[in-house]
Amino acid sequence: MGGFALIPQVVDAVKLPVIAAGGIADGRGLAAAFALGAEGVQIGTAFLPCAGSGASKTYRTALSLFAANGTDLTDAFTGRFPNRRHVE
């Protein structure tokens, strides 16, 4: 079951604000999450190519080489930032 099917069920089941995350990468997904009852939205992967994301330049460049309509698996990037520094 996908996230958009789960959002209204979670909203109905809990008394806390629901933050939608996963699979949301543009304004349409953002609007859909809010329409389904989410009070916030987390967008992650769409921002990885940004210089301030903490991802290496090599990884940011690699992201631009793949089509947005598929899934590619890699073990070259874990998502963890052991030496992450705050960027303002």
Helix content: 25-40%
The class by helix and strand makeup works out as: mainly alpha
Biggest sheet, in brief?
2 strands, parallel
Which residue ranges are poorly predicted, with pLDDT under 50 across at least 5 consecutive positions?
Answer: none
Beta-strand fraction estimate: 5-15%
Tell me what the structure shows.
- This protein has helices spanning 3-13, 27-35, 57-63; strands at 19-21, 40-42.
- The protein is elongated, with a radius of gyration of 16 Å.
- The protein is 31% helix and 7% strand.
- The protein is mainly alpha-helical and 88 residues long.
- Among the domains are: 18-47, no CATH class; 49-78, no CATH class.
- The protein has a two-stranded parallel sheet.
- The mean pLDDT is 81.
- Helix 2 (27-35) links the parallel strand 1 (19-21) and strand 2.
Structure at a glance:
The protein has 88 residues and is mainly alpha-helical.
Features:
mainly alpha, two-stranded parallel ribbon, 31% helix
Present the secondary structure layout.
Layout (H helix, E strand, L loop, with lengths): L2 H11 L5 E3 L5 H9 L4 E3 L14 H7 L25
Parallel strand pairs: 1-2
